[in-house]
Write a structure and sequence with these properties.
Layout (H helix, E strand, L loop, with lengths): L12 E7 L10 H18 L2 E7 L3 E7 L3 H23 L11 E5 L3 H16 L14 H4 L12 H4 L5 H14 L3 H13 L2 E2 L2 H11 L6
Parallel strand pairs: 4-5
Antiparallel strand pairs: 1-3, 1-4, 2-3
Helix pairs in contact: 1-2
Length: 219
């Protein structure tokens, strides 16, 4: 069966997942993580892509991005990959590929689905036991959104701004949502959409995306 063309919709949020080849680590130490974020920063600027959330896991990366054009997403991933993999291989005396095939990404509807995707990414290190609390997750966007330090890589989406009228209100509301966690069915639905290149949202949103893209956007 022919592979579907990648679903990329300019101006919409996209939840992107990239895993290590054969589940191998893509970050060995904090210097690796710093090098990755430097490469990501430069690629975001070069391709005018907004970054709403990120989580650097041991064997994968999760990014919530908003590309301005259809090619921008792939070009950003290619730019980060070329730079980071070359540096990673030099540092660790290895060669060859680091990532598992093509990156995976799902288009996310504005509103509640985008907020849920934001929460999923920010909670990932904590949920996977890589940090004792969301606040302690050094290699994600959670500390930025909880008021523990401003991250220049990030652009907060409207869904975050709507949580309160002041920074304190937004941070408190977001912290409560993080600790509450997503319903397991919602979490599985988000992950399934990202892992399989589907769209995530209401039936009308899915219908609009299918008409706009000319390809299936759900199983």
């Amino acid at each position: 069966m022919a592979r579907l063309p990648r679903l990329v919709v300019p101006g919409q949020a996209h939840l992107l997942v990239q895993r290590g080849h054969s589940a191998q680590p893509v970050f060995v130490d904090d210097e690796d993580r710093r090098l990755y974020l430097t490469a990501l920063r430069d690629a975001l600027r070069a391709h005018s892509v907004l970054l709403h959330a990120y989580a650097l896991l041991d064997d994968a990366v999760q990014l919530l991005l908003r590309p301005p054009s259809e090619p921008a997403l792939s070009r950003l991933v290619q730019a980060v990959g070329r730079r980071y993999v070359a540096g990673f291989n030099r540092r660790h005396g290895r060669s060859g590929t680091l990532w598992e095939g093509r990156f995976r990404a799902g288009v996310v509807q504005q509103g509640e689905p985008t907020l849920q995707a934001l929460l999923l990414v920010d909670a990932s290190p904590w949920r996977r036991g890589l940090a004792p609390t969301p606040q302690a997750s050094r290699w994600s966007s959670a500390p930025h959104r909880l008021g523990l330090g401003r991250d220049p890589l990030l652009s907060d989406p409207p869904e975050y701004w709507q949580l309160g009228n002041t920074p304190f209100e937004r941070e408190a509301a977001y912290a409560a949502l993080l600790m509450q966690g997503l319903d397991e069915a919602v979490q599985r639905r988000i992950e399934h959409a990202a892992n399989n290149g589907w769209a995530l949202g209401s039936p009308q949103f899915l219908a609009d995306m299918a008409q706009q893209s000319g390809r299936p956007v759900r199983p």
